[in-house]
Design goal:
CATH superfamily: Alpha/Beta hydrolase fold, catalytic domain
Strand content: 5-15%
CATH architecture: 3-Layer(aba) Sandwich
Largest sheet: 7 strands, mixed
Helix content: 40-55%
Amino acid sequence: MKIVEQGTGPALVLIPGLQGRWEYIQPAVDALSSAFRVITFPLGDEPSAAFEGFEESRGFECYVEQVRAALDRCGIDRAIVCGISFGGLIALRFAAAYCDRTSALVLASTPGPGWHLRRRHEVYARMPLLLGPLFLAETPWRLRRELTTALPERSSRFRFARLQLGTLIRAPLSLARMACRARMIATLDAAATCARISVPTLVVTGERELDHVVSVDGSVGYVSLIRGARRVVLERTGHLGSITRPGDFAAIVREFAGRSLGAADAERVVSKQPRLRDRKDPAFGQSW
């Protein structure tokens, strides 16, 4: 199984989103690795994952077993489990099934309880090879306001677009696999899953008016379903905050870890906390 490791410190598993490729969350990996030992991978149904035994009929369970296998391969007993968007649902299921191996849970821009595809996107998902290109074509327009707010400088937006295009070339997307994952979301029994979670949980969202991928109000639903969960808003972002403002995203996770982990691990996280006025965003050179 392909596993990517980066950084040192308390272990943190970072689960990618609907694209299924870890390369699309590289800015978050880079930022988090300043304080954590980050473990990530392509989702198990990606050919590049080389994860044997994936069965689509088992749904989320195969992804959960992939997380467990990654921890075993890396010799890690417990880790912070952080999921981005669709990956948050995998993290949720893992924390419910393996509380003893989850030190804390982070859900970033995760589809909320009861989330379902819009009617137009249901059609796309049924015919991904035919209509998928239309979905991709409308994405820049859907994200335009978020990107303008998160990256106000035109040069930063240009660099972000260039990086995304480069990632698309190096790590091509499978519209069919993305459609399958999108349909899988509705199969999750969020209430029953959340009731089994007993670890510190952080729900990270962007601003309500800027997330045009999932409903922020829906994501916030996890706060009431998971005992003791709290929410933080990553300002000036929508759905893509973990990669448009990765430095700020990492700072939020570090602060949460410092409050949630044992004394020894918390001290290691805090000791690596950069001074905010001196920190540069690792992806776009912006101060935060």
